[in-house]
Amino acid sequence: MTEPRTVGILGGMGPEATMGLMDRVIAAAGDDQVPLVVDMNTKVPSRISGDCNVGDMDPAPVLVAMAKRMQAADAAALVMPCNMAHQYAGQIAAAVDIPLLDMVVLTSEAAVKAAGEGGKIGILGSPALQETGIFDAAVAAAGGQAVYPDDQGMLLDAIREIKARGVTPYVRDKLVMASHDLLWQGAQVQLVACTEFSLLERAMDPGAIKIDALDVLVEAIVAFSRNAA
Amino acid sequence: MTEPRTVGILGGMGPEATMGLMDRVIAAAGDDQVPLVVDMNTKVPSRISGDCNVGDMDPAPVLVAMAKRMQAADAAALVMPCNMAHQYAGQIAAAVDIPLLDMVVLTSEAAVKAAGEGGKIGILGSPALQETGIFDAAVAAAGGQAVYPDDQGMLLDAIREIKARGVTPYVRDKLVMASHDLLWQGAQVQLVACTEFSLLERAMDPGAIKIDALDVLVEAIVAFSRNAA
Fold first, then answer.
1. Which residues lie closer than 8 Å to A35 by C-beta, 6 or more apart?
2. Peptide bond preceding A14: is omega within 30 degrees of 0, i.e. cis?
3. Which chain A residues contact residue B12 at CB under 8 A?
4. Is B112 inside any structural domain?
5. Same structural domain for residues A74 and A133?
6. Are residues A162 and A200 in the same domain?
7. Residue from B12, B3, B63, B5 nearest B195 by CA
């Protein structure tokens, strides 16, 4: 086997999601570890204007600076364990000479592969995902159609609850309801497209097929590191 | 408050100790987060020759390269969550322009402060700590005297058990016995000087005063980041 390549994580959005990603990479890599460099920057301006995080600053320059730092620290590729931050994927990729393993693109491709050409893909995440249309474009490019739970306010409530109090039965109920709504809309394949939700287990309708963005990213990281990607 | 300073972690020795340190820094920092950059390098040659890790390569050049990477990634100070790696602290500090917050020195100072001038400080860690004398020098410089459990093989057994099977009652019993031995030798203040042991709770004689190297490091990281150190 060739020497494993180092993957750089633009992290801290929030710290728990970054730690969750690192835990999963360590577990997935087993004895044949994957070297990581991590920028745990907890001062990235909000990716969701008007949402839980404070500030109206533009996150793009901060994310670009982080990407350059991780390139300077010998990362051979970059990842971001935050779906919303992928709004700035183009600007980040343009600023460095190494690839960004794009969680939104990879997850959309995995979902459409599971659902079949033209299939409906349910998106469970922040309301800002629907507003910005990140997944609409990526799912469409992969050959599917993104659909969203009708009650987006409920999802925002759930995210706020997780950030404030962690995983509660209340959060789980809200997510199962949203997942059930997506099934009724014809989306059996459903994306967990919020790293807060990735920390949950069993928060989906049992009839749904779950594709977790964080799991897709873990697989991409391990494959890239081993030079197989 | 001024902008928090970024601390670089030379990590991966092993990954669990690094994750444990990151968890503790995130918890200790609270809302006012501490930015971190982390080199999770799982390919650092063994710090303990003849021990659990494989290889006879010199870890010093690898650690120096990691330190330079973290400096390139804008770290304002460095830390290593591995006591044994502190054998190379001098070489690392000489290779970069930023300070190394030395866990061995800081912990020894904290222990002697707790034990009083001339006090005996018990060292719970790898037998290699006694062989290399890292803590002998640091504790003596702080004004105390390092003492070790008589049965060092038992400690090595415990480390191997944790690496192979995690925390078991067997490991806990061994550590409590070692701690008890230190008490009999007159060392009430005892250092948890192995990041594997730091992951344990209640693995010490109840009569001992515990100073955990990882906790001392967390405090130093938060203080440095906030410019108070």
1. A4, A5, A6, A7, A225, B12, B40, B41, B42, B43
2. yes
3. 33, 35
4. yes
5. no
6. yes
7. B12
Strand partners, B9: B38, B79
Question: Any idea what the Cα angle at residue A145 is, between residues A144 and A151, rounded to 5°?
Answer: 145
**B38/A42 CB distance under 8 A:** no
CA gap A127, A214 in Å, rounded: 18
- pLDDT at position B196: 76
Closest CA–CA distance from residue B148 to any residue of chain A (Å): 32
State mean pLDDT over B170-182: 92
Residues of A in contact with B10 (CB under 8 A): none
Q: Which residues of A touch B (CB under 8 A)?
A: 4, 12, 15, 19, 22-23, 26, 29, 33-43, 69-70, 72-74
Check whether residue B38 and residue B110 sit in a common domain: no
- C-alpha A173/C-alpha A175 separation (Å) is 5
pLDDT 10s digits, B124-133: 998 988 998 9
pLDDT in tens, A153-212: 999 898 888 878 888 888 889 999 999 999 999 999 999 988 778 767 677 888 999 999
B-chain CB neighbours of A40 within 8 Å are 22, 35-38
How distant is the Cα of A35 from the closest Cα of chain B, in angstroms? 5
pLDDT over 60 (residue A139): yes
The stretches of chain A forming alpha helices (DSSP H) are 15-29, 59-72, 89-95, 103-115, 127-132, 134-142, 152-165, 169-184, 195-198, 213-225
Higher pLDDT, B162 or B86: B86
pTM, 2 dp: 0.89
A19 vs B15: CB contact, 8 Å cut-off?
Answer: no
Q: Which of A223, A222, A228 is nearest to A22 (CA)?
A: A222
The Cα A211–Cα A189 span in angstroms is 7
Total domains, chain A:
2
- 3-state DSSP assignment of residue A48: coil
Q: Are A145 and A123 in contact (CB under 8 A)?
A: no
* Any domain includes A159: yes
Across residues B83-103, what is the average pLDDT?
Answer: 95
Instruction: Name which of B184, B228, B225 is nearest B3 in CA terms.
Output: B225
Shortest Cα–Cα distance, A69 to chain B (Å): 4
Q: How crowded is the C-beta side of A2, counted as CA atoms within 13 Å?
A: 8
Q: Give me the domain span that covers residue A199.
A: 103-213
CA-based nearest residue in chain A for residue B35 = A41
